C-alpha cells in the first residue's frame, strides 16, 4: 500500500501537478493529497477544506490544495530506510559559513534596537544554499525515518515551488471549538539529558511567547488553561514548551490566525515593530519559512461508546471538524539540485551574537542531515 502511495507521488511530480504528502508527529499514517490540475487555489475566509500552506508575511496569499484525491498508507520505518543517528555531528563545508559576518552584524543591530526600546524580542533568520543528491522523494523518506516526533512533509505546486520540512511546533489544533496551541522557544543541543538546565535568556524568551499567546486568546476563548513549562526534544535539539488550551467563543479561524500568526516565536514582540525590522534588515524573502501549514476543516469520524444502557455494547459515530496547523520551521526549498535551508533564532536583551550564530548552526543540522549521504 505504501508503495502505491510512492508511485502516485512520483507520477504527480512527473506530471508537474500539485501535491502534499505528510505525517503528523508520533504517527505512522502518511497522507497524500493530489490535485488533478495546476490551478493555484487560495484561502479567502478559511471556511474552505483542504491543506493550507501560508507564508510568513500575513499580507501574502495562503495557498490551498483542495481535497480532491487522498491516499493514505502506514509507514514502516525499518522497511523503508535505516534510521539515522540524529545526534551525530555534522560536517560543514566553508560555503555554509558565508553569511556569518552579516548575521553577527544583524544580531548586534537588533540588540541595539532592543536596548533603545524598539522591541523586546525579534527572530532573525538566514539561508544556507547547498547541493543535494537523490530525489525529493528520497529526502522525504529520510525525514520520515529521522524525525518521528515532528510534522514531516513534502509540498509541491508548479506555480510556487517544492518544499520539505520537519517541524516540532504546533501553531493551533482545533476540534469543533476546542483549541490547543503552544509556545515553543529556547534552544540548546540535545546531550542525552531529558531535563537540562536552561539559561535565563531561554527562559525569558519562552515566557514572552507564552504571555503573548495567552493575552491575545483571553478575549477569544473560555476555559483558558496554561500547562507547566517543559523541556521538549526535537531531533538533535532541545526546546522549552508550554501547552495552552481553551474553548473558542466563536469558530472564526481566520480571526484566530490573524492574532496568532506570526507569533513572537517566529517574528518578535511587539509584533509590528519586530516585523518591520525583519523586513528591512534580513535582506531576503522568507517566503513560506516561519509561515504555517496543515489540515484545514477536515472531517473526522469518531466512534464513541453509547451511555444508553438499552443499547449496551453498541456505539455511535460523531463527525467532527478538525484543523491541525504547524509552524513551518526546519524547512528547505528545492530547485533543480540546490536546496535552500532556512534557520533562525530569537534575539533578546541577553543575546550574544556568536552564540546566536551557533544556535542557527545547530538548527541547520535537521535539514543538513537529510541532505548529506
UniProtKB/TrEMBL annotation:
Pfam families: Chorismate_bind. Residues 104-363 form the Chorismate-utilising enzyme C-terminal domain. It comes from the Bacteria. Gene3D superfamilies: Anthranilate synthase (3.60.120.10). InterPro entries: ADC_synthase, Chorismate_C. This is Chorismate-binding protein. It comes from Sediminicola luteus.
Amino acid at each position: 500500500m505504501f508503495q502505491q502511495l510512492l508511485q502516485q507521488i512520483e507520477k504527480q511530480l512527473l506530471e508537474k501537478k500539485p501535491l502534499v504528502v505528510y505525517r503528523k508527529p508520533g504517527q505512522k499514517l502518511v497522507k497524500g493529497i493530489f490535485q488533478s490540475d495546476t490551478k493555484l487555489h487560495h484561502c479567502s475566509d478559511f471556511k474552505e477544506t483542504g491543506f493550507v500552506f501560508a507564508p510568513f508575511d500575513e499580507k501574502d496569499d495562503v495557498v490551498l490544495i483542495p481535497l480532491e484525491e487522498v491516499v493514505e498508507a502506514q509507514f514502516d520505518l525499518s522497511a523503508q530506510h535505516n534510521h539515522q543517528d540524529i545526534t551525530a555531528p555534522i560536517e560543514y563545508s566553508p560555503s555554509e559559513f558565508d553569511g556569518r559576518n552579516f548575521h553577527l552584524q544583524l544580531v548586534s543591530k537588533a540588540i541595539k534596537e532592543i536596548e533603545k526600546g524598539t522591541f523586546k524580542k525579534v527572530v532573525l533568520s538566514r539561508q544556507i544554499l547547498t547541493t543535494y543528491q537523490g530525489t525529493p522523494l528520497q529526502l522525504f523518506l529520510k525525514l520520515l525515518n529521522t524525525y518521528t516526533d515532528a510534522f514531516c512533509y513534502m509540498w509541491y505546486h508548479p506555480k510556487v515551488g517544492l518544499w520539505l520540512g520537519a517541524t516540532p511546533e504546533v501553531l493551533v489544533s482545533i476540534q469543533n471549538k476546542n483549541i490547543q496551541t503552544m509556545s515553543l522557544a529556547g534552544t540548546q543541543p540535545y546531550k542525552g539529558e531529558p531535563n537540562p538546565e536552561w539559561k535565563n535568556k531561554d527562559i525569558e524568551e519562552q515566557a514572552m511567547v507564552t504571555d503573548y499567546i495567552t493575552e491575545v486568546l483571553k478575549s477569544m476563548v473560555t476555559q483558558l488553561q496554561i500547562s507547566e513549562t517543559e523541556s521538549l526534544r526535537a531531533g538533535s535539539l532541545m526546546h522549552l514548551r508550554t501547552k495552552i488550551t481553551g474553548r473558542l467563543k466563536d469558530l472564526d479561524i481566520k480571526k484566530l490566525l490573524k492574532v496568532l500568526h506570526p507569533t513572537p516565536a517566529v517574528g518578535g514582540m511587539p509584533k509590528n515593530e519586530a516585523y518591520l525590522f525583519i523586513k528591512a534588515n534580513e535582506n531576503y524573502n522568507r517566503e513560506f519559512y516561519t509561515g504555517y501549514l496543515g489540515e484545514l476543516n477536515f472531517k473526522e469520524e469518531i466512534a464513541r461508546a453509547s451511555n444508553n444502557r438499552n443499547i449496551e455494547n453498541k456505539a455511535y459515530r460523531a463527525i467532527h471538524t478538525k484543523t491541525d496547523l504547524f509552524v513551518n520551521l526546519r524547512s528547505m526549498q528545492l530547485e533543480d539540485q540546490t536546496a535552500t535551508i532556512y534557520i533562525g533564532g530569537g534575539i533578546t536583551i541577553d543575546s550574544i551574537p556568536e552564540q546566536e550564530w551557533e544556535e542557527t548552526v545547530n538548527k541547520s543540522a535537521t535539514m543538513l542531515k537529510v541532505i548529506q549521504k
